[in-house]
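We treat protein structure as text, and this decision shapes the records that our systems exchange. Because each token names a local backbone shape, the row as a whole describes the fold. For reference, a complete record is included directly beneath this paragraph.
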Amino acid sequence: MKRNILLLLISFFALSVFAQQRQRPSFEDFQKMKLDFIVKEMGLSSNEIDKFSPIYKEMSKERVALYAKYRENNRIKRAVHNGEQVADTTMQRVSRDDAQLQVEDAQLELKYQQKFEEILSPQQVIKWREAEQKFRDDIMSRRRNGRRGQRNQ
């Protein structure tokens, strides 16, 4: 009898935890959601969307590859922050890599700025930049609020 009650309580707890967890969208779904948000914020026509979307997707792929390098460096920096010993040569490489990645990120931004200027008005290019920032801010706000909510439960 006690065993059945214990199993019932464990099952109930597991179900309640599972119900509270939010499913993260897949990477493809996230990218689609981001593109839809940006297109809506920019107020593009269907013709403009047809021109903008392939270029934006191409840029996103290049950014993903660049950000993978950032993530590796951040993993090493977190290890140092957590008290792990990391060789000075590794930290020097991470520092230089970070500077180089910032340069590559700026070059990528300029490359696609020029491509977007070929198909969009200057106002739309500004709206693209603003929509990118608004999307990032929204995601960060959701993450902060989600974490706060998890702590309060």
Observations:
- The first helix runs from residue 2 to 20.
